[in-house]
Amino acid sequence: MSNNHILKVDNVGIRFGGLKAVSGFNMELHQGELVGLIGPNGAGKTTSFNMLTGVYTPSEGEIIFEGKKVNGLPPFKVTRLGISRTFQNIRLFSEMSVLDNVKVAYHSQAKHTMISSILRLPSHFIGEKEMEEKSIEFLKIFNLDGDMHEKAKNLPYGKQRRLEIARALAAGPKLLLLDEPAAGMNPKETAELMSLIAFIREKFDLTILLIEHDMNLVMGICERIYVLDHGQLIAEGTPEEIRNNPKVIEAYLGEEVPAHA
Amino acid sequence: MLSVKDIDVYYGNIHALKGLSLDVNEGEIVTLIGANGAGKTTLLKTLSGLLKPKNGTIHYMNESIVGKQAQTIVKAGISHVPEGRRVFATMSVEENLELGAYSRKDKNGIEKDMAKVYETFPRLHERRKQLSGTLSGGEQQMLAMGRAIMAKPKLLLLDEPSMGLAPLMVQTIFRIVEEINKEGTTILLVEQNANMALSVANRAYVIETGRVTLSGTAKELQASDDIKMAYLGGHV
Amino acid sequence: GCGTDGGSGASGDTIKIGANLELSGNVASYGTSIYDGVKLAIKEINANGGVNGKKLEPIAVDNKSEASEATNGALKLTDQDNVLAIIGAATSGNTVAQVEVANNAETILISPSGTALNVTVNDKGELNPYAFRTTFIDPFQGTVAANFAINELGIKKAAVYQDNASDYAKGLADAFIETFEAAGGEIVADEAYVAKDTDFRSTLTRLKSASPEFIFIPGYYEEVGLIVKQAREMGIDVPLMGGDGWDSPTLVELAGAEALNNTFTTNAYSANDPDEKIQQFVKAFEKEYDKSPDGFNALGYDTVYLLADAIERAGEADAEKVRDALEQTKDFKLVTGTVTIDENHNPVKSATILEYKDGKQEFNSKVNP
Amino acid sequence: MEWFQQLVNGISLGSIYALIALGYTMVYGIIKLINFAHGEVFMVGSFIGFYSIVGFGLDFFTALILAMALCAIFGVLIERVAYRRLRSATRIAALITAIGVSFLIQYTFIRIRGAGPEAYPEVFTNRTFELFGAQISMKSVLILSVSIGLMVILQFIVHKTKIGKAMRAVSQDTETARLMGINVDNTISATFAIGSSLAGAAGVIFGLYYTKIDPLMGVIPGIKAFIAAVLGGIGIIPGAMVGGLLLGVVETAVSASGYSLWRDAAAFVILILILIFRPNGLFGKNAREKV
Amino acid sequence: MKNKLNKFWVFIVVAAVVYGVVQALISTGILNNYNTNTLILMAINIMLAVSLHLVIGITGQFSIGHAGFMAVGAYVSAIITVKLGLPFIVAIGIGGVVAMLAGLLVGIPTLRLRGDYLAIATLGFAEIIRIIFLNIDYVGGAAGMQVSKLTTWTFAFICMVITIAVVSNFTNSRHGRACLSVRENEVAADAMGINTTYYKVAAFAIGSLFAGVAGAIYSHNFYIIQPANFGFLKSFDILIFVVLGGLGSLSGAVISAILLTIVSTYLQAFPEMRMIFYSLVLIVVMLYRPQGLMGTREITDLLPTGKFRKGAAQGVK
Ligand SMILES: Nc1ncnc2c1ncn2[C@@H]1O[C@H](COP(=O)(O)OP(=O)(O)OP(=O)(O)O)[C@@H](O)[C@H]1O
Ligand SMILES: Nc1ncnc2c1ncn2[C@@H]1O[C@H](COP(=O)(O)OP(=O)(O)OP(=O)(O)O)[C@@H](O)[C@H]1O
Ligand SMILES: [Mg+2]
Ligand SMILES: [Mg+2]
To answer: Do the chains B and A touch each other, judged by at least 3 C-beta pairs below 8 angstroms?
Structure first.
């Protein structure tokens, strides 16, 4: 199991001015795993995602994805290598239609050139047609095809969250990073989201890393969990181990651990 | 203390609140639960004067506050902690708290309340010179609540104080909510985290697409199967 | 109609005169000044019974100080309004933008203040058959100034500080430098400024350290006023000289009477000239607009009279005949001098050299072309 | 010592830019509006000063106060009529409106009094003194001190007073500011009043220093003030001051080297270089969006 | 898909018809020189508006120095016909290409700036370009350069149609959507694999190309070009077309360019009130319709087919 890792985070750290937001972070993800990343607010979870996706360049350490070093690459190149993400604060293309949001993500898989589009050559029509069909497929999975001509900003919040995931999938990732996908959802919606995540993992053969504060969700679907506190890894293990880890209880969970998983 | 009758609120053509009514009595914690987009935030914004209802009445301490400016309502004792915290990021913690007391003139009272806030939230005292934009989510939530307390409210409107917070922090926040209430502030609490909300509240309303569909004491609702299905995670 | 009938311009008992001027935009102050002069002249002429019994009817278009709008305006005046003649524009560039239109439509075009050679003669050296001007061409004043500096003031080392955005200033400067050097003088500094500027101190500091005995400053009064003032403040006491662009009562206000001592200008006329014609104009203008006229006012005013005189001599408002009459204008007395139109459609006027003394222009000498 | 004279020249030019930029950055910082009409308020202030000195025979300081007061009212009026409705619109719509307001003021003015220039009366006998061989005019010393004084006052108002805190709160989040009990409309009006009265003061002082005023005089200084404000960092008061001075010194340095025609180009090159290396201006916080 | 193919051809056919009708009116003398010239001016303004629309409306890059690229096209093409004596059509092409190169040169360093910082940098570059021409004696400096009139209605119209077709085809493709996504949320676009710098620069280059073409048509229509014609006020004029039409709406840009050209020419007859009226029009439109005349909609959205599509979408929902 240890040699089929898809992502290896080796002693990574970053500082903002004097603040060490993350330091000495180690993590390994294996093909097909579903892993959780938890920790108190400001622990450096989102910052870690930002380093994994090229938004920030780590000031130390290495990030190896499928044998290739990805730290230092700009975000769009990282995405093209196969890491895509959602955002903690939703970042849709709000004035564009739901369909176009997904098409944008499918962009790098299409081949027709700018010239062919400007001259309306046959390759343009073929390429656009394929994009449209593929994008609608993604929307169908998330049950968003009914809203495909709606502007993204007009969707209700829950659908916007789902669209973000659909869009991230359309970018063709092997590793999907979800930043608090259930934030602002009520327990019922969260439960639906859980099954959806499990479904897409199977269907697209994905490895998933997710940040979440909803312990029902994290403990419910993650196979392994990493816990960050003050930018440092304080624990790693199965949900059961994490739930009972005194350090995690002190820093993060508090006494009232949800009873049901 | 607060009585809302049949209000309709619109965003352009969107009819967000449809003839909604509810009451809050002095000293209570009342919680509103409901799905995304049900209209909870809209209601709070209407109460604090950020939005104007098209029809209906809102009485606070037996006086109509419909059409009053936000600053007048704040002076009258209603203080609103907005969704998403909304601290003034490039101002220090202390300045944020001072702004909370913006409409007050009693210098001594302000100082006293400031001390009280720091007592309730020692973390804020520790960080009082830090720019609030660099605080962690939980700290920002504390600041937002502290800022509202600085207005010396009789009625505190809280919009999803647990959103995006770590479990430990959620517990802290709810503990503080109960403390504030014990010290005499009435609280109207909007929450997605219905479990938590119902466990601290006296009464609750359920809102769906702009209407109240259910109300009762927190105990009753916690026991209701419908509520369990819809809002407590489906574990009947 | 496309004006192929020779731009009749006369319908019934009026003669339509277009004014295509910079009434807004960058150089709005020049255009509006000219237009004030034009309006006054037309009012006077009409009050005196018009030209050949016909009233002059002005039709103005604003070219926003832009060439494209000037072309378009000229097309409107020729194609739509069928004017007999167009007065404008204030600057050479905006006039050049109308020349072809006027030629094609056989409509007279008179620029009151466009000094560049290519207003009346195109780049290939051919005469633009319908284009005229009321003001001097550039080289004459520059030559006069250079001769004056050398012969009257005994200057050996001169500096030039010119308005870079104006072809007028450039023309004067080139002629000055050429004449001055040919006569054995030395140009110790040649600097330029940008129109609409207000702070000239840094370049003046440079000029000062070149120690010239005389500075030639071709340009318009708006900047020149400030330059003179700032130069004196910086301790530059040498004689300063410029052309008719200096001519405005505002110059004295801007620079201050004291700073203007020891400065000279070439001009076709002086508002302080006791000459009856000039004083009449000054009085009429002050009565109408409650301010003293500047050079642009006078040129606008003169342009109308120049045109009216030609129409009168032509006997009818026919563009071709009026053009011929314009070409034959000889020793016609205007406010800005006594004019003869030469073979290149340029006015030949004698220049006067004026000296400022305590804020008053005083006659120094007269130079014939 | 020519360079010293040139440095003096540069600082006096720059302090005029700074003076206009102070008011500009104030308004700019709070409602994030590139208020092109600021240059026109400056122009109007200049004319108010002119007419009250020449027309009504007031003394300089009374004229200055009057211009500041009337400009404050004028600025508030512009905000009420033209900008208030656009608060929730895109910034670019507000920008176009500002350009419209700017044209409207210019050409209404031209319509009323013509486009020609007016010359400011000499209210002080201009004294100059010599320092290290450079001629320094008392007026430029006055302007520099006024600019620095105003900067200090503004900085105090914005950071230390209650209204200043309200202004900063409004600039970050109007809705939450209202929840604090802040009257947003009044706060914005106050900002416009202060910013516009500064523009008025700058107008009068400009007239005093440069003598010539005309209805289009606000255009170039308006743009220069915008540059100075951006150079220093949007909304940062000492930034506007430094930005203005820097701009003045750079422009003078270019002219002093004999490239006066390239002056504006060089100023822009410097500006662009600074922006490329410090994308938020000299004093701007690194406001990189937190993802 | 078929629908989109058709849309393109419908546009071409409509264009051909408009051209034919106007040409006939010109030949029969019903439209005089003045009217024709106004139409040419309109075509130029449309090109400028549409090219800037790509930069601001589609890609969201706040450029307020578009006149600079127009100046490059105007001067370069004028040099080619006047000084080198080459045909006009070559001049248009080279003028456009050189303007595009200028766009690349300006775009690459500045497009990493945002918002007002980008605005001031583009304004600065346009001024630099203008000052460069001001200081080159070869093109006449401040006095300007005389250019022979070679622009005809045909040249202007064809260039305009090409501009609209290219910008519209570009926009309605994955490349245009990439630009839109940059406008909407640059961070997210980047995270979705869009090379945001590339698309910003590409949009800027295409915008500059057509600004250059418009400049070439412009310089050969008004007999003379001077650096003063290309100052920031010109850039503002173009910006006003785009914003007034509705940011993000190509047809809005076209419509407002047409309307404002008409308003502006009509107001020539009221010289003293002209700018007052013009500014009032601007203010009133912005106050009562801050999203611009068309908002983000296209004219085709208002046609029956567009309505049908929207209706259908709502039906499913
Ligand atoms: N661009 C930045 N500049 C300065 N500090 C930053 C920046 N980005 C993040 N930080 C700081 O790094 C720390 C980690 O932030 P991060 O957003 O990663 O937390 P998180 O674990 O995602 O928290 P939450 O659960 O609240 O989302 C915080 O203290 C934050 O303020
Ligand atoms: N500014 C706005 N413009 C238009 N519609 C809005 C606006 N704000 C909210 N709405 C709509 O009004 C309805 C109620 O929204 P509201 O924000 O009050 O819901 P909520 O119950 O607070 O949901 P959440 O749990 O997501 O915070 C939703 O349909 C929403 O889309
Ligand atoms: Mg986070
Ligand atoms: Mg809400």
So the answer is: yes
CATH code for residues B1-77+153-236: 3.40.50.300
Q: Whose CA is nearest to atom 9 of ligand 1?
A: A47
Domain positions in chain B are: 1-77+153-236, 87-152
Q: Of A58, A54, A64, A81, nearest to A29 (Cα)?
A: A64
Half-sphere exposure of E205 (CA within 13 A, CB side): 14
For residue C328, the 8-state DSSP code is T
**Alpha-helix runs per DSSP H in E111-150:** 115-134
Question: Could you give the CA distance from residue E317 to residue E308 in angstroms, rounded to a whole number?
Answer: 14
Block residue for tokens 């450096």? A44
Listed in sequence order, the residues at least 6 apart from E254 whose beta carbon sits closer than 8 Å to its beta carbon are E46, E49, E50, E164, E245
Chain D neighbors (3+ CB pairs < 8 Å): A, B, C, E
Cβ–Cβ gap C75/E34 under 8 Å: yes
Size of interface A-D (CB pairs under 8 A): 4
- What is the percent of chain B with per-residue pLDDT over 90, rounded to a whole number? 52
Mean pLDDT value of segment A157-178: 92
Give me the half-sphere count of Cα atoms (radius 13 Å) on the Cβ side of residue A19.
Answer: 12
Choice among A101-110, A137-146, B144-153, D26-35 with the minimum mean pLDDT: D26-35
Is any ligand 1 atom within 6 A of the Cβ of residue A76? no
pLDDT tens-digit profile of E242-282? 999 998 999 999 999 999 999 988 888 887 788 898 899 88
Cα-to-centroid distance, E260 and ligand 2 (Å): 39
Q: How many CA atoms lie within 13 A of A3 on its CB side?
A: 0
Tokens 């309006």 belong to which residue? C39
Residue A49's closest chain D neighbor by CA? D291
Which residues of chain A does D287 touch, with a Cβ-Cβ cutoff of 8 Å? none
Q: Which residues contact A111 (CB under 8 A, 6 or more apart)?
A: A123, A127
Q: Give pLDDT, residue E291.
A: 86
The domain ranges of chain E are 41-230
Model confidence band, residue A124 (pLDDT cutoffs 50, 70, 90): very high
Q: A110 to chain E: nearest residue by CA?
A: E174
CA of residue C170 to ligand 4 center, whole Å: 69
Query: Is residue D256 in a domain?
Result: no
Helix (H, G, I), strand (E, B) or coil at E210: helix
What CATH fold (topology level) applies to the domain A1-82+173-261?
Answer: Rossmann fold (3.40.50)
- CA–centroid distance, A44 to ligand 3, in Å, is 7
By alpha-carbon position, which residue is closest to atom 11 of ligand 1? A21
Which range (A32-46, A135-149, B62-76, D131-145) has the least confidence?
Answer: D131-145
In a mutagenesis test of the D interface, which of C191, C202, C251 is the best target, namely the one with the most D β-carbons within 10 Å?
C202
Cα C166 to the chain's mean position, in Å?
12
Neighbours of ion ligand 3 (CB under 5 A): A 46, 88
Q: What is the DSSP letter of A152?
A: G
Tell me the count of C-E CB pairs closer than 8 A. 107
Give the residue from chain E lying closest to A107, CA to CA.
E174
**Long-range contacts formed by B118-122: CB under 8 A, 24+ apart:** B120/B146, B120/B149, B120/B176, B120/B179, B120/B180, B121/B145, B121/B146, B121/B176
Alpha-carbon distances, residue A256 vs A252, B235, C245 (angstroms): 11, 18, 89
Number of domains in chain D: 1
For E185, the 3-state DSSP assignment is coil
Query: Does the beta carbon of B41 lie inside 6 Å of ligand 2?
Result: yes
Contacts of C209 in chain D (CB under 8 A): 2
Domain residue limits, chain A: 1-82+173-261, 92-170
* Six-digit token string for C157: 């080392």
Average pLDDT over residues E60-78: 95
- d(CA E60, ligand 2 centre) in Å: 27
